[in-house]
Amino acid sequence: MSKLILGSLYENLNQAVTSIKEYQPGSSLIIPGPIWLFQLWLLATFRTKLAVFLPTNFTEAYENRSTEGIGLAMLRQGNGSSQELFSIAYKALLGYDVFSPSLAPFAIRVRGPAWFRKEFPATSIEDEAETNAIWEAYPTPMFLSSRTTTRDPYGIYAYQPNHVARQFGLVQPKPNSLYKCLDNLRQPLIHLTPMFLCMKT
Predict the structure, then answer these.
(1) CA 85 vs CA 13, 16, 99: distances in Å
(2) Which of 67, 72, 139, 190 has the fewest Cβ atoms within 10 Å of its own Cβ atom?
(3) Domain ranges for the chain
(4) What's the rounded Cα separation, in Å, for the pair 195 and 185?
(5) Which helix (H) or strand (E) holds 146?
(6) Averages of pLDDT over each 10 residues, the chain, 201 residues
């Protein structure tokens, strides 16, 4: 389910960019999807820039949070509108000339399930095989589904956490297409998954 939600977010943000480019004054701009997840990411990455605060009645719950996501949802963003807050975060991102630790909010993993909190690379021989298997699967891209629309001839729905691997303290290659060439787009769907597996090697 988590992969479907994250894949949906990527797709919705892509559609949002297109909608913003085509926006006409006086028309409605509706951005669907799990945008709340994007808002949590903005809070995790640009918390100091957004001047958020924690209500006093959430202090105990925040200290005992089981995951960072729960804690981020407790933060409040003052009286600024969503547009103003996004603008602040966007300008902050443009202000980074080099990749800094603040852009990798999940590199230090002190909360979450046990496997998520284990050190990687593993520091013990007993945990090495399991830890390597988990983190190999965690950032591996996956084809989820395909679609056809009236505007575009074809589209794919993919889970591509490898594009944000640096936020977890991992090596991140330059983003590229899941397809090697245009001929791959013409292959039947049954051949897509093996093709993606080949691209991992």
Answers:
(1) 17, 17, 22
(2) 190
(3) 35-105
(4) 11
(5) strand 142-147
(6) 73 78 79 80 81 90 91 83 74 78 80 86 87 81 68 65 75 64 51 40 37
Full DSSP string of 11-45 = HHHHHHHHHHHT--TTS-----S-HHHHHHHHHHH
Report yes or no: 100 and 71 within 8 Å, Cβ to Cβ. no
Q: Please give the structure tokens belonging to residue 87.
A: 């603008």
Buried/exposed 131-168: b ≥16 CB within 10 Å, e otherwise: beeebeeebebbbbeeeeeeeeeeebebbbbbebbebb
CA distances from 179 to 18, 124, 193 (A): 22, 38, 11
pTM for the full model?
0.65
C-alpha pair distances (Å), 97 with each of 22, 51, 65, 100, 167: 30, 22, 33, 9, 16
d(CA 40, CA 64): 18
Helices (H) and strands (E) in the chain, counts: 9, 2
> pLDDT tens-digit profile of 158-199?
777 777 777 777 777 666 665 555 555 555 444 444 433 333
